Amino acid sequence: MLNDIQEILITREQIQEKVVELGKQLSAEYEGRNPLVICILKGAFIFMADLVKEITVPIELDFMAVSSYGAGTRSSGEVKIIKDLDTSVEGRDILIVEDIIDSGLTLSYLIDVLERRKVKSVKVVTLFDKPARRTVKLEADLSGFVLPDEFVVGYGLDYAEKYRNLPFIGVLKPEIYTS
Ligand SMILES: O=P(O)(O)OC[C@H]1O[C@H](OP(=O)(O)OP(=O)(O)O)[C@H](O)[C@@H]1O
Ligand SMILES: [Mg+2]
Fold first, then answer.
1. Where are the domains of the chain?
2. Is 129 a pocket residue for ligand 1 (Cβ < 6 Å)?
3. Tell me, what's the pLDDT at 179?
């Protein structure tokens, strides 16, 4: 698996440090409130697990699984809800936890779905952001690292379901996509 990586962009230590910082900011932001924290599966599962340990206010958790990339490196443009929430979101403060915002299509679709369900507020925290690739206007309320316009893997992010378990963010060798 490590042989398939061309370059490490963000190390495990850099990620750990950033997650602690984001947790502190969110704890201050939600002081005195009880947000529902929604993990967008599958990609955000590691970030979610690490982030919630750094949040000091009482929270509730839920999970939503969506997919639009399949086995490719470009969004299909169609966001599919594979698993919906178990919790009612009406009147709740919602914090969406994403691993990456790329085209922005996944989040703009999800925010629309949540707003139609009459949430009180919705904010987004993403660990990685690729602003150069946006096809819709969308910004996270809180974001960890800005990435270059390259397809990355690791720390939850996959290529064709592989490499999610790498503890860092890396770029794959081009022959992996083309072989
Ligand atoms: O801004 P966008 O272009 O929409 O890309 C971001 C989304 O794409 C990835 O999910 P994917 O569809 O690959 O599902 P996965 O999390 O199960 O890998 C990623 O985890 C984000 O949810
Ligand atoms: Mg994916």
1. 13-149
2. no
3. 63
In this prediction, residues 158-168 reach a mean pLDDT of 97
Atom of ligand 1 nearest to the CA of 102: 1
Task: List phi, psi (to 5°) of 178.
Answer: -95, -15
Q: What is the pLDDT of residue 48?
A: 98
Which atom belonging to ligand 1 lies closest to the Cα atom of 135?
3
Which residue's entry shows tokens 């794959």?
172
One-letter amino acid at 49 equals A
Query: How do residues 45-78 score in pLDDT, each as one tens digit?
Result: 999 999 999 999 999 999 999 989 888 888 888 9
Active site members: 102
- Against a cut of 0.90, is the pTM above it? yes
- CATH class, range 13-149: alpha beta
126 lines ligand 1 (CB under 6 A): no
